[in-house]
Design brief:
Elements lengths: L4 H18 L5 H10 L8 H14 L5 H12 L7 H10 L8 H11 L7 H27 L8 H17 L1
Helix pairs in contact: 2-3, 3-4, 4-8, 5-6, 6-7, 7-8
């Protein structure tokens, strides 16, 4: 039986495709940093890997990765300042900048242009205020459980403090 070059090429292509379809790929930077940090690639972001490596260099010893992950969230959590695009949308909607998300601002702009329903914008503002109140109540509960004051803290900081507090309780 004679094997044609086309059959060989197809077999090689299919075998190569099967291997690459099952293999999970990571960026070279992520693989290199993960190796340097001594963790599995794909578990942490590049920023977290950088923080792990810096902490290992500072202490010249192994680092508790879970504790470092919580610290990373606390350090880097914060509300991003309103960009020029959000400020422009807020001006178009006639609302203060920095109070609403980009998606909410877009909905407010559309509602303010709705001439058939002049109350649409106010209904959205009321709904967003109610949503904020509900979210703030949930954050207050998380903060109380974590034993921190939620004033001046972002949701990410409160969540990280909660994770730290509850994981400490689980380990005892």
């Amino acid at each position: 039986m004679r094997i044609t070059p086309i059959a060989v090429a197809l077999t090689a292509a299919l075998a190569g495709g099967a291997v690459t379809a099952n293999a999970q790929t990571f960026s070279p930077a992520q693989v290199q940093l993960s190796t340097e940090a001594g963790v599995q690639p794909g578990v942490y972001t590049i920023g977290q890997l950088d923080a792990i490596i810096k902490a290992q260099r500072d202490t010249n010893q192994s680092v508790d990765v879970d504790q470092l992950k919580s610290a990373f969230v606390l350090e880097n959590a914060g509300a991003a300042p309103a960009g020029a695009g959000d400020a422009q949308l807020a001006a178009q909607a006639g609302v203060p900048a920095g109070k609403y998300t980009t998606g909410q601002l877009q909905q407010l702009v559309q509602a303010s242009r709705n001439h058939t329903d002049p109350d649409a914008k106010q209904r959205l503002i009321d709904a967003y205020a109610k949503e904020d109140a509900t979210q703030n109540a949930g954050l207050a509960q998380l903060a109380a459980r974590a034993g921190i004051d939620p004033a001046g803290k972002t949701p990410a900081q409160i969540a990280a403090a909660y994770v730290t507090a509850t994981s400490d309780l689980d380990n005892n």
